[in-house]
Amino acid sequence: MTATLSPGAWPALVLNADYRPLSYYPLSVWAWQDAIKAVFLDRVNIVEYYERQVSSATFQMRLPSVVSLKAFIRPARQPAFTRFNVFLRDRFTCQYCDSREDLTFDHVIPRSRGGQTTWENVVAACSPCNLKKGSMMPAEARMIPRQKPYQPAVFDLHQNGRHFPPNYLHDSWVDYLYWDTELDP
C-alpha cells in the first residue's frame, strides 16, 4: 500500500513462509480484500485476526490481520538500484548536510566528469546541496559525503528500514516484526 495506513483500512501483515515479513520498509501489507482473496485461493495461512468481520449472504469471516505465505519466496540477493533504495541506504538524509528535506540524489563524481549512475557513485542529497555542488568534484566543492557510497545488501536496507516504522502498526503484528533483533536483558 502506498497510502498512509489507518486502523480503518484493516491491512494484513504479510509474512513469508518462515514467518518473517516479506519486507520491512515498506512494510509488506495487503488490503483486507487481497488477504481474503489469497485465503480463498489457498495461498496463505491466517496467523492472526482482527475483531472485525465481513459477511455476505452465505459467508462470514473475521478479517485476517497477519497472514503467512504457504510457499516460501526467496529474498532477492541484491537490492534493486532505485531512488528509494538509495534514500533508504542513506537513511533519508542528505549526505552533505544531514537535512531530511527536499531529497534528490547526487553523483559524487559528476556525470560531466565521467561519473556513472551506480551504487558506488550516487548519494542522497538535498536540492540546495546538490545545486551548490553542481558539476564540481567533492574536493573542489569542499563537500565530502558523510558516508562513502556503496552497494548495500538486502540486510542493510532491512536494518535501515527498521529506523522508520510505519504510521500504523496493529498490536497483533508486533510479535512478527523485529523478532530477530537482540533482546534487552
TrEMBL record:
GO MF, one example: endonuclease activity
Keyword hit for Coiled coil: no
Entry keywords, A to Z: Endonuclease, Hydrolase, Nuclease
Recorded superkingdom: Bacteria
Domain HNH nuclease intervals: 81-131
Pfam families the UniProt entry points to: HNH_5 (PF14279)
The protein, known as: 5-methylcytosine-specific restriction endonuclease McrA
Biological source species: Ancylobacter tetraedralis
